[in-house]
Design goal:
The chain is an alpha/beta fold. It has 8 helices and 6 strands; from the N terminus they run βαβαβαβαββαααα. Helix 6 packs across helix 7.
């Protein structure tokens, strides 16, 4: 079995660590908080994030990214999206080489048609909702871009974008507005719809 590191000791990271350990993997969990590491080592539970869930005693815990990453077969990044970039930057000195695995396949060097298929399965998560839209393009263009990349017709894209905007509590007319013409909250509601809901 694999030697796996889970970077993040919140509810998602600990749930993953628990499942990985129960599947026979050697698991190390990293937390940026030393007091959180102590609590996990002593109580095998994160009472604030995953109360009542006792974690296997075999799981190791550390607040050292170097210890969490070096020599591992797999590192799973399970931190809140707002910390993904800063955590990845801190990890960089300890990652020497590797692969990006999606659905069991290495996508690190994908090109052309293979990359197009990958884009159907992943999406960008922006920390700034207004920044997730190109200021020179309408909200409808931004929301429908991945459908356009898949070869969907303009009429189908407009219909799907209108449907998604209504799910966000916005009138379909918002598809013709530019990011500066709507509030940050409206951009945030529409930004999350731009990829995940039309798959």
């Amino acid at each position: 079995m694999a030697n796996v590191s889970v970077i993040g000791a919140g509810s998602w990271g600990l749930a993953l660590a628990r499942r990985l350990c129960k599947n026979g993997h050697d698991v190390t969990v990293w937390s940026h908080r030393e007091e959180g590491v102590r609590e996990l080592r002593e109580q095998h539970e994160n009472r604030s994030k995953l109360p009542g869930v006792i974690l296997p005693e075999e799981i190791q815990y550390t607040s050292s990214l170097e210890q969490a990453i070096v020599g591992k077969d797999l590192c799973v990044l399970a931190v809140p999206s707002v910390y993904t970039r800063s955590t990845a930057e801190q990890m960089k000195p300890f990652v020497t080489d590797g692969q990006i695995i999606l659905d069991g396949q290495d996508i690190s060097h994908s090109k052309g048609a293979a990359r197009k298929g990958i884009y159907e399965k992943i999406q960008m998560v922006f920390q700034n909702p207004v920044g997730s839209f190109d200021p020179r393009r309408t909200l409808g263009d931004g929301i429908g871009e991945s459908l356009k990349n898949k070869g969907v017709s303009k009429a189908e894209i407009r219909a799907k974008v209108a449907e998604l905007l209504e799910q966000c509590g916005l009138e379909p007319e918002y598809m013709d507005r530019y990011p500066h013409q709507v509030s940050g909250g409206q951009c945030q509601r529409t930004g999350g719809r731009s990829e995940s809901d039309h798959l």
